[in-house]
Amino acid sequence: MVLGVFLGLLLTCLLLLSLWKQNSQRRNLPPGPTPLPIIGNILQLDLKDISKSLRNFSKVYGPVFTLYLGKKPAVVLHGYKAVKEALIDHGEEFAGRGTFPVADKFIRRCGVVFSSGRTWKEMRRFSLMTLRNFGMGKRSIEDRVQEEARCLVDELRKTKGVPCDPTFILGCAPCNVICSIVFQNRFDYKDQEFLTFIDILNENVEILSSPWIQVCNNFPAIIDYLPGRHRKLLKNFDFAKHYFLAKVIQHKESLDINNPRDFIDCFLIKMEQEKHNPKTEFTCENLIFTASDLFAAGTETTSTTLRYSLLLLLKYPEVTAKVQAEIDCVIGRHRSPCMQDRHSMPYTDAVLHEIQRYIDLLPTSLPHAVTRDVKFREYLIPKGTTVIASLTSVLYDDKEFLNPERFDPSHFLDESGKFKKSDYFFPFSTGKRICVGEGLARTELFLFLTTILQNFNLKSPVDLKDLDTTPVANGFVSVPPKFQICFISI
């Protein structure tokens, strides 16, 4: 009896302490819904559609508000003005990487995507410089993408117009472009090692976008103790680590410091130059995870966008017909599309922008964190606080895009039919942590899609009314539903 009373008092004291700590934290933070002890606001979030929950909260608390994801606060930025003010106008202060416990468990803040501070700055600077040296933004990378586009067309011809799931084929093409930069060589589309790696990348995105991973990230204590799909994710991370480690070992054995062949060679040369620097960030672990980041960012986001693009082009054949008419007029049938063509193809350019806006690939991007105590508007945000930027709220702003819930290329066309830029176009995020491979992704999307439409008509084996374009998951990435497509040679 006495023990029971004691335990009850102890539990009450712990709950009161938790409430007191939350209340003291909340004093200078933006307003938000009242959190429950330990679990915070998790019960008030729709984990299958976080963007919808954030939109509803913003109607009550304004464009800058606080949510408790478990015991820790996260400041949410909703709408163009708030996102721009934080990520661009205060870019340095908001350039940290927020916690992502499932990934942090394995990656330990290495590489580019999940790192912060000096590690992130060094890895990002080196990655950008090396990618540019190997042609990103130049004619040489365009040549690589054009070559891969021709290989993609050859592979699609083999389907002979029979209904197929395009997931793997569309994953192979951007992955091979990254392979040519990181490993020097591309793989055959039937290479089993290559297909296994593509399969793992696809699986990782689906798991990362599931509600269960949102739970694990908000309550990291369960990662070590409960079963679930996060264990498969960690197993896949381990496979990728050993895969890249084997590539690094192969490169070390054949390295010629006077003739670097690819990204790994360049990193190994930098490691050798910095080997006497005790504070160097150029370590084998950073090499493995930076190479892995380039693959994940440069493959899965582009292949998912390509897959979603084909689904939308199937759903809206009138849009596809206009793009093909523009291809016929500007490019014709007898040469490969090139990036220069884009300037003469305003409708196609508008379609590509509208696809990226509409699919809202990264609804909240990855979490940011403030790098120091920062006064933002009338609030004081302590160093290390997680910041969530709702990209959905920018891409679906109804003041900038008339009828944002509709797929409509005219969102990016003026009254005379010319392409119209928008400051609200943030599919790759914005500010200091904008996607490293943004330029490469733009090149791939234009060249792959125009080459496909130059060579094939698209046909759906099911009635167009039955084609659903609603994502099956939109936690980390908006994953399109599975669908079948027929590629009919022109």
UniProtKB/TrEMBL annotation:
GO MF terms held by the record: arachidonate epoxygenase activity; caffeine oxidase activity; estrogen 16-alpha-hydroxylase activity; heme binding; iron ion binding; monooxygenase activity; oxidoreductase activity, acting on paired donors, with incorporation or reduction of molecular oxygen, reduced flavin or flavoprotein as one donor, and incorporation of one atom of oxygen; retinoic acid 4-hydroxylase activity
Named cofactor requirement(s): heme
Gene: Cyp2c66
Residues that bind heme: C435
Signal peptide bounds: 1-25
Gene Ontology cellular component annotations, sorted alphabetically: cytoplasm; endoplasmic reticulum membrane; plasma membrane
EC class: oxidoreductase
Keywords (A to Z) from UniProt: Endoplasmic reticulum, Heme, Iron, Membrane, Metal-binding, Microsome, Monooxygenase, Oxidoreductase, Signal
Compartment list: Endoplasmic reticulum membrane; Microsome membrane
Enzyme Commission code(s) on record: 1.14.14.1
CDD domains the UniProt entry points to: CYP2C-like
Protein name, per record: unspecific monooxygenase
Gene3D superfamilies linked to this entry: Cytochrome P450 (1.10.630.10)
One GO term of the biological process aspect: lipid hydroxylation
Any matching Pfam family: p450
Broad class of where this protein is predominantly found: endoplasmic reticulum
